[in-house]
Fold this sequence. Notes:
Elements: E1 16-20, H1 29-42, E2 47-51, H2 57-61, H3 73-79, E3 88-89, E4 95-98, H4 105-110, H5 120-126, E5 134-138, H6 145-153, E6 156-162, H7 171-184, E7 190-197, H8 204-217, H9 230-234, H10 242-245, H11 250-265
Parallel strand pairs: 1-5, 1-6, 2-4, 2-5, 6-7
Antiparallel strand pairs: 3-4
Helix pairs in contact: 1-11, 5-6
Residues 25-31, 53, 55, 57, 141, 197-198, 226, 228-229, 232-233, 236, 251 line the site of adenosine-5'-triphosphate (ATP).
Amino acid sequence: xxxxxxxxxxxxxxxxxxxxxxxxxxxxxxxxxxxxxxxxxxxxxxxxxxxxxxxxxxxxxxxxxxxxxxxxxxxxxxxxxxxxxxxxxxxxxxxxxxxxxxxxxxxxxxxxxxxxxxxxxxxxxxxxxxxxxxxxxxxxxxxxxxxxxxxxxxxxxxxxxxxxxxxxxxxxxxxxxxxxxxxxxxxxxxxxxxxxxxxxxxxxxxxxxxxxxxxxxxxxxxxxxxxxxxxxxxxxxxxxxxxxxxxxxxxxxxxxxxxxxxxxxx
Length: 266
Ligand SMILES: Nc1ncnc2c1ncn2[C@@H]1O[C@H](COP(=O)(O)OP(=O)(O)OP(=O)(O)O)[C@@H](O)[C@H]1O
Ligand SMILES: [Mg+2]
């Protein structure tokens, strides 16, 4: 339980539990979980990343070899395995991880018959969250029971949106799910921020999409926009956040700026 030996930066502040969510696939959820956490960790904040996607991209992106894992978040969700025994160090400074593997795919089905099935992840995270400044949950690309668990466990949502045609497609559905959970299970749930990802300055399309999303979400959109860069897409194959793989890259600089904006938002 190495995570207990390091201290929070701001122990008097409430920890923030933020779900990185969008049921649309490939919009930059896991990339943001990895790189925002690494950038925040560099500022001395102590971060827990909960990988809640059976694809386990965030676990690999933080340098974890999933083949060597004996246990993962599935065991906590389905078998009551203590989450404190799952928390591991990562390549990134001050960033700790609860890993996921493909095993978690089974939980979506097994949870259907479980008691209080929407509240399981919340119980798991609540038992350890006070040790951290921020807890991020990386969600799978669906609105199934795993995602509902994330909506119940979170204080707020970080919604990555790719600068692409049909960027807002599906967002209404996501906001409906959010409303449903607010009404029944988690009244305090709010939007933490909307993040534009994979921005390509060479295209007018990217600008059009940013404008469209800004007129829909207003001030909720982060000022920082994440550019599309080769370094960001290469970094995971080295098991490193881009901020460690290529420090002076526009992708790294953007995630560092985003970290500052996140800190300013609370
Ligand atoms: N800013 C970027 N520049 C270049 N490539 C990027 C950028 N952000 C993400 N990518 C690449 O795009 C792909 C999808 O990103 P990512 O895995 O973060 O999306 P996701 O929303 O987590 O996907 P899924 O819904 O499957 O979980 C990955 O190959 C990633 O490396
Ligand atoms: Mg992902």
